[in-house]
Hints:
Elements: H1 11-144, H2 156-164, H3 168-173, E1 192-194, E2 200-202, H4 223-258
Antiparallel strand pairs: 1-2
Amino acid sequence: MSLFRSVSPAPYQTSVFQSLATQLEIYIKSTDSALFNSQTALVNSQTAYVNSQTALVNSRTTLEQSQIALQQSKVAIQQITTSIATLEKKIDGLLTTTTAYQADINAKCENLNDQLALQATRQLAIQDTITRVLGDIRVELAKKNDDAIAPPSLTVENLKRQYNDIGDDDLKRLTHPLGKNPSSKKVKFATFSHTSGNSSSYSSGSRLSTSINRIHLPDDDDNDKHIQRNQAAMAARQNEVAKEEGQEEEYDDEHAKDD
């Protein structure tokens, strides 16, 4: 006989075992499902973590690139600032040089204008002097020749009219260009009076030397010497005229003796 004999469970025991088996099976299934969900969530979390790490690396790379670009921008801005400062210095230097050149040019232009005005005034004075001396010589020539033969411009009446018609504007041209107008240094003109025939007389005195008494030159430094030179030239001309007249008289006397 066997030691163990099979004992069939009681009916109530069978129902209990079945209930426990069913509960255990349900528990195992629920546990498996929860484990699977947990594993899925873990995988998703790991994927998200990897993605986060990748994004972080990308962000760091972008940040580094941004910092490099920022540094390059700072260097470029510094270079531009330095270039602007250098350009400003050059512009200031050019402005200073241009201002100096402009001032120098203005001074030279003013000096040149003064010299031109002075030269023009001197030229007018010299032209008037030459005109009056030539007029006196023409008067002398007109006195020696017949009025009908002499050209109209050389007649005493025309010369007298020419000299007497000179107005104040001609006197103003010979004054100092800076406004000085000494009345004692104005040009004094000779007047002529026509009597009869070919003779004429000066109302102011002698023949040639009285047509110009004083001439005002703009520089005011050598006026008397200039007058003396003019008077000496006119005196020399008088001597030449006198010598020519003396030679003509001697020639006439010699021919009269021969006749």
